[in-house]
Amino acid sequence: MMVRRHDGLISEIVLEDVVVLDPETSRYVRLNSSAAVLWQLLESGPTTVSNLARVLRERLGAPEQDALEDAAAFVTAMAERELIELVPA
Questions:
Q1: What's CA 10's distance to the chain center, in Å?
Q2: pLDDT at 16
Q3: Phi and psi for 47 in degrees, rounded to 5?
């Protein structure tokens, strides 16, 4: 399963965080620095949860199990807010 951003969202870097706005619903979310790294990775296109975890390990030095759990939690939270979607590989 691949993860990708929904189309039409606006995001802006604010210091080390990212603010994401959905203009259709007028809802916004502020992402902390580690979630911002994952959000920016999704800018380049769909990816997998395991690839998101790899980025957390490489860029932030997260232990493997923590990185996988954090990446999965990010995907779940963003999907609940309808900012990302899961698509077949």
A1: 13
A2: 84
A3: -150, 180
* Residue 78 buriedness (CB in 10 A; 0-12 / 13-18 / 19+): buried
Predicted confidence at residue 41, as pLDDT, reads 95
Provide, for the chain, the percentages of residues in helix, strand and coil under a 3-state DSSP scheme, each rounded to the nearest 5.
45, 30, 30
Domain residue limits at 66: 2-87
Q: Quick one: tokens of 73? A: 């939690």
Per-residue pLDDT of the chain (89 residues; tens, 9 = 90+): 899 999 999 999 998 899 999 999 999 999 999 999 999 999 999 999 999 999 999 999 999 999 999 999 999 999 999 999 999 87
Instruction: Assign residue 54 the CATH number of its domain.
Output: 1.10.10
The Cα–Cα gap between 28 and 59 comes to 26
Are 56 and 71 in contact, with CB atoms under 8 Å apart? yes
Q: How many distinct structural domains can be found in the chain?
A: 1
